[in-house]
Write a structure and sequence with these properties.
It is built from three helices and six strands. The chain has about 140 residues and is an alpha+beta fold. The chain has a single domain, classed as Roll (Nuclear Transport Factor 2, Chain: A). A hairpin with a 2-residue loop joins strand 5 and strand 6. The protein is globular and about 45 Å long.
Length: about 140
């Protein structure tokens, strides 16, 4: 098994962070900036406590992320995922794209583009009306 690079470790840590809101390895810079784009809304947060609290209460609700691909850039990476989010009535599905900038091995900034949650009815309608060539 190959040893993971520092870049791979940062990506893995960021995925774990998006699933839980926990930052046990100090991956986030103290003044981390998040630009969040969700359907018909956009907002920004700054600082580790504010960003972690939002992720913990809004994303880290039993989220399981499935990484589609990672593209490394000169100062970070682009992360393409789909997620299963546990809710009281079952599971919501969403697709998310993160553009992440790192400084000194820490996450300094990220922009999130998210489809929003799809409930079971939406997923069923999508499967019937918009068959995917690639999944």
């Amino acid at each position: 098994m190959a040893t993971k690079t520092k870049q791979d470790q940062v990506v893995d840590g960021f995925v774990r962070f998006t699933e839980s809101g926990e930052d046990p390895d100090g991956l986030l810079a103290e003044d981390v900036f998040a630009d969040v784009n969700v359907p018909q809304w956009r907002f920004q947060l700054q600082g580790r406590p504010a960003v972690a609290d939002w992720v913990k209460t809004q994303l880290g609700l039993g989220t399981t992320s499935h990484v589609e691909r990672v593209t490394f850039t000169s100062n970070g990476f682009v992360l393409d995922t789909h997620c299963d989010i546990q809710i009281p009535d079952g599971t919501m599905y969403c697709r998310a794209l993160y553009v992440v900038e790192t400084t000194g091995g820490k996450i300094g900034e990220f922009t999130l583009y998210c489809t929003g949650g799809w409930d079971a009815d939406t997923r069923e309608r999508h499967a019937a009306e918009a068959p995917m060539i690639r999944t």
